[in-house]
Amino acid sequence: MSGFSQERLMQVLLAPQISEKATFIADKNEQVVFKVDSAATKPEVKAAVELLFKVEVESVQIANVKGKVKRFGKITGRRKGWKKAFVCLKPGQEINFAAGE
Asked: 28 with 17: CB under 8 angstroms?
């Protein structure tokens, strides 16, 4: 594999991001959205998706999502920030979460 340990790649992807926006992007651009480890890099995400789902990845875009500010009475707190990866698959490739691959 491309220079990453298999243990590290297993920890990179946390969960698929299922939302209205993610579904729209999946249909329109053939992209899949994942919640990823906050220290993950684009090459790591690419290698992890290719290893776990046996698909070919064309490109990866990453976005840092800031945690929301929430209030508990007088005290304001902040949720943790997280990282989101938009994985663009090569034409003809797809990941089907409903089938449980």
From this structure: no
Residues 22-69: tens digit of each pLDDT: 989 888 888 899 999 999 999 999 999 999 888 999 999 999 999 999
Structural contact between residues 86 and 28, judged by C-beta atoms closer than 8 angstroms: no
pTM exceeds cut of 0.70: yes
Instruction: Walk me through the domains of the chain, giving residue ranges and CATH numbers.
Output: 6-89 (3.30.70.330)
Q: What is the amino acid identity at position 3?
A: G
CB neighbourhood size of 33 (10 A): 20
Residue 68 near residue 36, CB atoms below 8 Å: no
One-character DSSP codes across 7-57: HHHHHHEEEE--SHHHHHHHHHH-EEEEEE-TT--HHHHHHHHHHHH---E
pLDDT tens-digit readout, 60-80: 999 999 999 999 999 999 999
C-beta separation of 83 from 64 below 8 A: yes
